[in-house]
Design a protein that fits this description.
Elements (H helix, E strand, L loop, with lengths): L2 H13 L7 H14 L5 H10 L2 H18 L2 H16 L6 H13 L4 H4 L1
Helix pairs in contact: 1-2, 1-3, 1-4, 1-5, 2-5, 5-6
């Protein structure tokens, strides 16, 4: 898995926490992709997140998190959490489980979410 693929996969997973990926969330992922120059087929990644069985997607998600954990600097991790926050707010609806997942990722990286956002 490449850095770009891992990045886009996790963003798509954050968008899908509420069981759907809205047009606004997909557009936000594409905007972040363009801003950062990430290479990957966002539509294909989104389709994979939505259509893959839960066990397969959990394995892909875990692999992507592990990759980013090992390959992003602290500053890059903080930026990534900000982008994840942009994704979960893109559709205008923020669910508690979206915040929990964001907080868990921050804690996994030994970062304080309240100091980042």
């Amino acid at each position: 898995m490449s850095r770009d693929e891992a990045y886009l996969l996790i963003l798509a997973n954050f968008a899908y926490i509420d069981g759907e990926i809205s047009k606004e969330e997909a557009d936000k992922i594409k905007s972040i992709q363009k801003k950062l120059g990430l290479i990957g087929d966002v539509d294909k990644i989104i389709k994979g997140v939505v259509e893959n069985p839960a066990d397969d997607e959990i394995e892909r998600y875990a692999g992507a998190i592990a990759y980013l954990s090992q390959n992003l600097t602290k500053s890059e991790k903080m930026d990534f959490l900000k982008y994840c926050s942009e994704i979960i707010t893109a559709d205008g609806k923020v669910f508690a489980n979206e915040i929990v997942k964001l907080e868990l990722l921050a804690r996994n990286w030994e970062l304080e979410l309240s100091k980042i956002l």
